[in-house]
Amino acid sequence: MSAIKASADTPAVAAFxxxxxxxxxxxxxxxxxxxxxxxxxxxxDLHFSSTPFSxxxxxxxxxxxxGGLLARSAHAAALVLHPLILAxxxxxxxxxxxxxxxxxxQAVEIHPGARAQFPxxxxxxxxxxxxxxxxxxxxxxxxxxxxxxxxxxxVWPCSHxxxxxxLLAEDNALSIEIAPGDAFVFLGSTLHGGGANxxxxxxxxxxxxxxxxxxxxxxxxxxVYPPHVAxxxxxxxxxxxxxxxxxxxxxxxxxxxxxxxxxxEVPAQLxxxxxxxxxxxxxxxxxxxxxxxD
Length: 294
Known about the structure:
Number of strands: 9
Shape: globular
Strand content: 15-25%
CATH architecture: Sandwich
Structural class: alpha+beta
Largest sheet: 6 strands, antiparallel
CATH superfamily: q2cbj1_9rhob like domain
Distance between the termini: 37 Å
CATH topology: Jelly Rolls
Mean pLDDT: 94
Number of helices: 9
Number of domains: 1
């Protein structure tokens, strides 16, 4: 049994799922050792210093962003594969998909003078119906302490229960103050935004997000982690970044699970092979019963 499945029914998962459902967010204190976060921060130092500021009012002219963290630091996997958070994401998104997928890994550095980000819901990147389906679970991991003055993420509690087009009053926003090792988890339907940095030092954080496995992710994982990179990942991580089919037959390579691309040798010709949900396999078996061979 995987760490994800083994954690899926623990009291902690149930409690955090309940809070996430009620408020649209939750905070998990000391989810990882601060030393792990410090090591990750050190690995990303050069990337932060060499990345230019973003272009656009949404990304922020005084904010730096870059993705592909699994290829930039070996410590990033500890965030992506955190058993409690993965179980929380699976329980939240599971009713609408056969498997979840990694949507994004992004490092963010908000510099002094940065304005508060436009309040938004991340689910709006997809055009499907809102209020019926949860598309996304976000996790903010601070690399440096988040405070109300240095740009801590702002969240509007219970905004996932409000009409998706609504922008709630500024007075309703909370600045989520967290320390390295803590994890701030929120729904894609929850209104939020980065805060203004009114200090003289940058604040750094990591965004990890998970989406329904049948969606096109924000960050095209197959381009960020092509087969020669994903081949070095644990199977569970490779599956999260897209080297797994979403039944029935979605996201295949030549009719097979794309994990075939992670082999040392990939056959030039492959046999397309059914990958169906149990209910579909049962219906198909009933349909072909007694009909003889193809």
